[in-house]
Amino acid sequence: MSPRKATALAELIAEENSLSVIASKPERRLPEQGLSDPVQALKIIREDLGDCTRCILHQQGRKQIVFGVGNPKAELMFVGEGPGADEDEKGEPFVGRAGQLLNNMIKAMGIEREQVYIANIVKCRPPGNRQPERDECATCSPFLMRQIAVVKPKVIVALGATAAKTLLAMNSSMIQLRGRFYDFRPTGIPRDDSGWGGCKLAVTYHPAFLLRDARQKGEAWKDLQMVMKELGMKPAKATT
Ligand code: SF4
Questions:
Q1: How far, in whole angstroms, is CA 152 from its chain's centroid?
Q2: Interval 58-85: pLDDT, tens
Q3: Which of 151, 148, 119, 154 is nearest to 232 (CA)?
Q4: For the whole model, what pTM was predicted?
Q5: How far apart are CA 198 and CA 184, in angstroms?
Q6: Which residues contact 125 (CB under 8 A, 6 or more apart)?
Q7: Dihedrals phi, psi of 128, to nearest 5 degrees
Q8: What is the pLDDT of residues 201-219, one digit of tens each?
Q9: pLDDT surpassing 70 at residue 97
């Protein structure tokens, strides 16, 4: 065999060996995977997060990490951008004025806040309520993805552009993003044997934006009606 052919053969064998190593490499399982109790699974994710210092938001005045709240088996999940001052104070997402509006939106759908799960893209308050930076979203959102994979909702509603763009990895405007469902699977989560293959995701305006521009409330209600139809829900009867 000529030296040239021998080299080519050696390269081919090396490539095949490396491919077989990649193919046989087991997927990394997450510590909460395989647990049937979502409360326990969420607890494990919270413990894993710890007193997190993974992004710069840990040293920009946060009082506490705002993990998420609600029904660990919720069919409907709301995801916002990040905690504000009230949320930072209380350690719970959506408890300020925007939270009150979100509660009213949930009530108008004919359900209670306790029936849904609520979380944010970043779990620490950005200073001055600025938008979280892309790298902060990228660093924090894997924990949200794990929460979603535990709760296994049927529908996620992304509240505002930051939540929508991060979850969908798309850089479109709210006008382009709203008005339809997306098939969603949390990224970075190895497949498990639960049979959950992902969910639908809809985009609507963040309640804080609706407080600033009440004219868009009708548009947000259209988005929620689309979600209700998907989940077979009936709106609450208007009280007089
Ligand atoms: Fe950690 Fe998320 Fe807080 Fe950043 S925002 S410090 S990644 S918990």
A1: 11
A2: 999 999 999 999 999 999 999 999 999 9
A3: 154
A4: 0.88
A5: 6
A6: 57, 60, 61, 62, 63, 66, 82, 83, 84, 85, 87, 88
A7: 65, 20
A8: 999 999 999 999 999 999 9
A9: yes
User: How many Å apart are CA 70 and CA 124, to the nearest integer?
Assistant: 18
Instruction: Please check whether residue 112 is in contact with residue 96, taking contact to mean a CB–CB distance below 8 angstroms.
Output: no
**Alpha-carbon span 79 to 122, nearest angstrom:** 10
Question: What secondary structure letter does DSSP report for 126?
Answer: P
Residues having CB within 6 Å of any atom of ligand 1:
49, 52-55, 57-58, 65, 122-124, 136, 139-140
Which pair of structure tokens corresponds to residue 28? 């990394």
CA distances from 60 to 42, 63, 201 (A): 26, 9, 31
Tell which one of 49, 88, 125 to mutate to probe ligand 1, the residue whose CB is within 8 A of the most ligand atoms. Answer: 49
In the chain, domain spans: 35-231
Pocket test for ligand 1, best of 60, 123, 134 (most atoms within 8 A of CB): 123
**CATH number of this structure's domain 35-231, picked from the four choices 3.30.460.80, 3.40.470.10, 3.40.50.280, 3.30.70.120:** 3.40.470.10
Burial grade of 98 (CB within 10 A; 0-12, 13-18, 19 or more): buried
